Amino acid sequence: MSVKIIKCKMEDVHVLQEISIETFNDTFSNQNSPENMKTYLDRAFTIEQLESELANRSSQFYFILYDKEVAGYLKVNVDDSQSETMGDDFLEIERIYIRNKFQRKGLGKYLIDKAIDIAGEQNKKNIWLGVWEKNDNAICFYEKIGFVQTGAHSFYMGDEEQMDIIMTKKLK
């Protein structure tokens, strides 16, 4: 097994879109209406939206490769790009998306470690993320590696308001 993390470039936008839609569908379609899923996917993962995110200097995307195949990606935000106002000493992990066939191989931990490295390079003291309150597997994973619940915020899936738990980890 070989694992490699590489920074995404603008020309990667179509692969980014494919992984985004695939992993979001795989993770959340069973618990949401088809209409709300379509509304969300049609807004969040258009080529134009992803190009805008890739061009943002306060956001970074990284692919994780497993035996040279793109297995998923990480998106981190700082400063005004964070989805909540958290302050200058925070880095947000907005997305860790791992394709189904690559789950349970430790890749999420590689991406968390990458986010921690980025935070350290930028002298951030904390990292945080939002996770759907019904995503028990993710919550357990984050707790196991030292994240604690520090709040919550609304997330809209189409016309349905859902709750994301905000989890934070202090860096050494």
Task: Describe the protein in words.
With 172 residues, the protein is α+β, with helices and mostly antiparallel strands. The chain has a single domain, classed as Aminopeptidase. 35% of the residues lie in helices and 34% in strands. It is built from five helices and seven strands. It has helices spanning 13-28, 34-44, 47-55, 107-121, 136-144, and strands at 3-7, 59-66, 69-77, 90-98, 126-132, 148-157, 160-170. A seven-stranded mixed beta sheet has the order 1-2-3-4-5-7-6, with helices on both faces. It starts with a strand and ends with a strand.
Task: Average the pLDDT over all residues and give the rounded result.
Answer: 93
- Specify Rg, calculated over alpha carbons: 15 Å
Given the C-alpha coordinates, what overall shape results? globular
Strand content: 25-35%
How many beta-strand segments? Answer: 7
At the fold tier of CATH, the topology name is: Aminopeptidase
Structural class: alpha+beta
**Low-pLDDT sequence parts:** none
- Give, in spatial order, the strands making up the sheet with the most strands: 1-2-3-4-5-7-6
Order of helix and strand elements from N to C terminus: EHHHEEEHEHEE
Tally of helical runs: 5
Give a concise summary.
This protein is α+β, with helices and mostly antiparallel strands. It is 35% helix and 34% strand.
Secondary structure blueprint with pairings:
Blueprint: E1 3-7, H1 13-28, H2 34-44, H3 47-55, E2 59-66, E3 69-77, E4 90-98, H4 107-121, E5 126-132, H5 136-144, E6 148-157, E7 160-170
Parallel strand pairs: 4-5
Antiparallel strand pairs: 1-2, 2-3, 3-4, 5-7, 6-7
Helix pairs in contact: 1-3
